[in-house]
User: Which sequence fits this backbone?
């Protein structure tokens, strides 16, 4: 008997978790990795950024704005389950952030089904505005195509003509290698070879040996997260950079450099669309952010969350409604963007946000004036050159003229 | 060139394969010792390896105690924890199906990993390599870091030393006897329960030592033992858990095999050991060095 | 078989009619009481746990790699529904066939050893399969297979009753297996394999067959889950999933019929509540394992069965 009652109770418990959906609340869900690999890149910092944006935007007549957050643990099933519950039961209108491309693709699909809004500030895959594009999705901050173009193109132009790739053996790594290879070759460079390593490799010694033996001028790291960090560490141990070869991180964030330290990471090439020390406006905002985040400077993903929330609220205010996700995104595409972090920009028909990208090199310890002073600017690439042109998108939203 | 691979690269990879092999050997040795006497497959072995690395990290971060003392202190600390685990938890499972031991230690592994994941995240922490072992030798076929030579050397010494102790000394013979017939051995006045506790502590101490050795080259992270333990399971199945020398040899050989795979067909490097396991099972089910049941 | 044992089986079958009826009522009523997606998740895991229990509780074989069948089927079903455009029923049936094939392959290799070794072998083979899925084209790697269509089951209640139907069908199949002469032989092999062999039963063949059956039903659960969540991902083939199904069976009650269902519901509920607590779920899982192995080996329904003095 007891077990059956317990069973009934156990089935009934989730009922208590239901909430009411009201039209007077604009609920923004910050979905990212709170405790794992990307917790420093996005994590709680993104929540801080979102809340700052809500504060800075000001009052919207007849509505309150709420920010909730959740942890997708870098798994598409966890992320999509939580998002589904958020949309079905908890009245969330917009989901933002979602680093980890596999989760982002799932969220984009779900958001289209439920006609809400998804702003991807964290994910890299350029498929979000390509073959998996959606009228409910906006892709902010960066994508793999832009990174490949900025790092690859700018580096070849600066003299790094021969490349060797260290590629994580999964779809994302392969995409990074493919995009960057294409750019390098088109710019007149040469790809001497590549080696695939299993995902989550801890020991890069054998792969770096092969990279060293190739004598390529640039070693491209077509991987992400822990793999990139381990590869950079091992490269320092093997004296790769001291031996004259350059390392190009194809997906590296300032929080990774902070974790590695300048001694290990010096000389690394990378691209970002935001750096806290870029100009007076970014410095001012970043200082406010750091005060709320225990002294940590914002990453470009967190900056993208701030800018994305601002623009979303702008569109909702203009439309006076948050109910129809597709309509809100259309409005976001109609209105030009303007924020202190990314400057002036636009959102294209395929959902891609356009802004300039920057190629940076990590400073030597002697060149740095203090913590977080890590980058020196090598080159700025304007938005219309950095991102994939509309006609190459393969996106169903873009009409072929 | 051998099969389109330059000889230099081949030797370089072989040497690196030996390093992986060192870890496999150390860990499968600990597992074999524990299984031999307690009949428990210690799923927590990977988590205790991780704990060893973390103890070394703590010692450095909080107490400024460096690598060399950590090599002794970490295994000691984890060994003590192991003794506590054995006395309070594993002892209650004597006489039960050994599968319960597997499940209990699996639970312990989850607890350890979960706690560390919560406090440290999954990306891991750096551990400074001791200055005396930094740098390396510029050999004609590769640049060989000193630290990796050190790892191979230490593992060989420890593994062969352990084997010598179990085969050649009185303590070792008592251990082996107790594995065969515990009641008879205790009838001789030997304190079998205490021997069991010490054995478990020793086994996990070996794992912790491997963890300290790993700390400078693989980052110290909560999941560093999780996937590794499954490979070590495959190693012990291949080697046959009855034999200590067998697990040592198998560990090193499989490490080299894995290293070679990384040269010729890198995509398969993390599954080659499982493939070998499947083949060995079909051909010689008791394992290469195991005794037929 | 003797009169007495036949009577005992029949009595057992009769005395379980009431719990079965209760289960059916609960299953049919659930979507009106709780969030249907949650209920569907619980049902899929319940079927998975029951399939696993067939192997562990009744044959005594601990497989630490059942995620291979669950996840592999999930990919098969997702692929069939998305790429081949099959209706969900066919996709799920296809995934069962795939599960059976995988079960045969793994079973033939793993049966060579017993007990602990069997567990480690299944774990290693499942890990190999995980790495394969990570790299293979059709699984989508890290992304998994997404946007799996639900076909004509778009309505959430239609979807739910399909899943309920699958669960009840699977449950009844397992029930029939356990209460059949085949099931008796399995139990005999678990109790005393040498004696069963001496009686003329080819133990290895029975074990492999039981393994294939368990794998097929686990595959049924996995294939259905892919349609429910419209996603097949690496989580489903990861060793953590193998550990979870062991936990569900353990706390529910190994060797009981209803235990795994309760264990699955319990576990799904806890996971739901702790899902935002990050890695504390792992700690909770581990703690439940430790406590159950030390003090609660019979599980919920095992203890209940002992109290009520009737098989459950």
Assistant:
């Amino acid at each position: 008997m007891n077990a059956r009652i317990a069973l009934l109770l156990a089935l009934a418990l989730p009922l208590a978790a239901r909430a009411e959906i009201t039209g007077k609340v604009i609920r923004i869900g910050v979905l990212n990795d709170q405790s794992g690999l990307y917790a420093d890149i996005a994590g709680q910092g993104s929540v801080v950024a979102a809340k700052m944006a809500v504060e800075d935007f000001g009052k919207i007549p007849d509505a309150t704005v709420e920010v909730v957050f959740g942890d997708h643990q870098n798994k598409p099933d966890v992320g999509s389950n939580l998002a589904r519950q958020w949309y079905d039961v908890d009245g969330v209108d917009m989901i933002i952030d979602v680093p980890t491309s596999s989760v982002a693709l799932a969220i984009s699909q779900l958001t289209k089904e439920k006609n809400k809004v998804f702003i991807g500030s964290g994910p890299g895959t350029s498929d979000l505005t390509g073959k998996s594009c959606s009228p409910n999705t906006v892709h902010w901050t960066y994508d793999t195509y832009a990174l490949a173009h900025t790092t690859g193109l700018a580096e070849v132009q600066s003299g790094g003509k021969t490349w060797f790739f260290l590629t994580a053996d999964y779809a994302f790594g392969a995409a990074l290698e493919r995009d960057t290879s294409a750019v390098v070759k088109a710019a007149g460079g040469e790809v001497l070879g590549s080696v695939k390593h299993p995902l989550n490799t801890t020991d890069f010694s054998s792969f770096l040996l092969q990279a060293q033996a190739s004598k390529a001028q640039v070693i491209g790291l077509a991987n992400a997260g822990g793999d990139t960090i381990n590869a950079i560490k091992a490269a320092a141990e093997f004296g790769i950079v001291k031996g004259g070869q350059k390392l190009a991180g194809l997906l590296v964030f300032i929080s990774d450099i902070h974790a590695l330290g300048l001694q290990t990471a010096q000389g690394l090439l990378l691209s970002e669309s935001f750096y806290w020390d870029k100009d007076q406006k970014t410095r001012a905002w970043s200082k406010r952010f750091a005060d709320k985040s225990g002294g940590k400077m914002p990453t470009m993903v967190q900056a993208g969350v701030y800018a994305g929330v601002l623009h979303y609220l702008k569109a909702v205010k203009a439309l006076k409604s948050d109910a129809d996700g597709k309509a809100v995104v259309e409005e976001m595409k109609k209105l030009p963007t303007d924020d202190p972090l990314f400057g002036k920009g636009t959102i294209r028909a395929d959902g891609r946000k356009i802004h300039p990208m920057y190629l940076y090199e990590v400073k030597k310890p002697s060149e740095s004036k203090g913590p977080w002073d890590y980058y020196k600017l090598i080159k700025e690439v304007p938005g219309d050159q950095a991102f994939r042109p509309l006609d190459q998108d393969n996106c169903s939203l873009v009409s072929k003229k | 060139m051998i099969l389109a691979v330059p000889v230099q690269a081949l030797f370089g990879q072989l040497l690196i394969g030996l390093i992986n092999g060192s870890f496999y050997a150390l860990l499968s040795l600990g597992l074999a010792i524990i299984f031999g006497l307690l009949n428990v497959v210690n799923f927590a072995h990977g988590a205790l390896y991780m704990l060893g690395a973390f103890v070394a990290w703590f010692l450095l971060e909080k107490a400024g105690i460096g690598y060399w003392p950590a090599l002794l202190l970490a295994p000691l600390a984890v060994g003590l924890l192991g003794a506590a685990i054995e006395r309070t938890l594993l002892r209650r499972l004597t006489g039960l199906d050994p599968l319960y031991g597997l499940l209990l230690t699996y639970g312990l592994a989850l607890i350890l990993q979960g706690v560390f994941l919560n406090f440290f995240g999954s990306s891991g922490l750096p551990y400074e390599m001791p200055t005396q072992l930094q740098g390396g030798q510029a050999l004609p076929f590769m640049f060989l870091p000193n630290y990796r030579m050190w790892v191979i050397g230490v593992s060989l010494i420890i593994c062969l030393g352990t084997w010598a102790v179990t085969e050649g000394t009185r303590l070792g013979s008592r251990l082996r006897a107790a594995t065969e017939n515990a009641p008879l051995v205790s009838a001789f006045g030997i304190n079998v329960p205490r021997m069991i506790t010490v054995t478990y502590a020793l086994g996990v101490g070996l794992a912790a030592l491997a963890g300290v050795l790993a700390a400078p080259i693989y980052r110290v992270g909560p999941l560093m033992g999780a996937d590794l333990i499954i490979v070590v399971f495959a190693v012990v199945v291949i080697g046959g858990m009855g034999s200590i020398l067998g697990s040592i040899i198998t560990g090193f050989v499989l490490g080299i095999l894995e290293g070679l795979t990384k040269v010729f067909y890198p995509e398969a490097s993390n599954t080659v050991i499982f493939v070998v396991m499947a083949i060995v099972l079909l051909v010689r089910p008791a394992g290469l060095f195991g005794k037929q049941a | 078989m003797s009169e007495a044992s036949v009577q005992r089986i029949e009595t057992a079958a009769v005395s379980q009619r009431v719990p079965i009826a209760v289960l059916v009522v609960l299953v049919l009523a659930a979507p009106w009481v709780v969030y249907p997606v949650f209920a569907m998740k619980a049902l899929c895991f319940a079927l998975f746990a029951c399939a696993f229990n067939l192997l562990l509780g009744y044959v005594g074989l601990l497989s630490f790699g059942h995620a291979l069948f669950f996840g592999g089927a999930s990919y098969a079903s997702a692929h069939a529904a998305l790429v081949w455009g099959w209706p969900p029923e066919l996709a799920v049936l296809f995934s069962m066939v795939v599960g059976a094939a995988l079960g045969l392959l793994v079973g033939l290799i793993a049966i060579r050893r017993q007990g602990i070794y069997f567990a480690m072998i299944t774990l290693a083979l499942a890990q190999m399969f995980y790495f394969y899925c990570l790299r293979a084209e059709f699984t989508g790697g890290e992304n998994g297979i997404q946007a799996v269509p639900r076909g004509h089951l778009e309505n959430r209640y239609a979807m739910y009753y399909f899943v309920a139907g699958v669960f009840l069908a699977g449950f009844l199949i397992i029930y029939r297996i356990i209460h059949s002469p085949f099931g008796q032989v399995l139990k005999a092999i678990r109790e005393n394999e040498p004696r069963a062999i001496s009686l003329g039963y080819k133990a290895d063949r029975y074990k492999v067959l039981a393994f294939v059956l368990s794998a097929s039903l686990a595959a049924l659960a996995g294939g259905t889950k892919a349609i429910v969540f419209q996603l097949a991902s690496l989580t489903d083939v990861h060793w953590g999933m193998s550990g979870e199904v062991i936990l569900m069976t353990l706390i529910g009650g190994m060797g009981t019929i209803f235990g795994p269902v309760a264990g699955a519901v319990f576990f799904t509920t806890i996971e739901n509540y702790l899902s935002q607590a990050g890695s504390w779920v792992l700690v909770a899982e581990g703690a439940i394992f430790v406590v159950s192995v030390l003090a609660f080996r019979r599980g919920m329904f095992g203890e209940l069965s002992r109290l009520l003095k009737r098989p459950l």
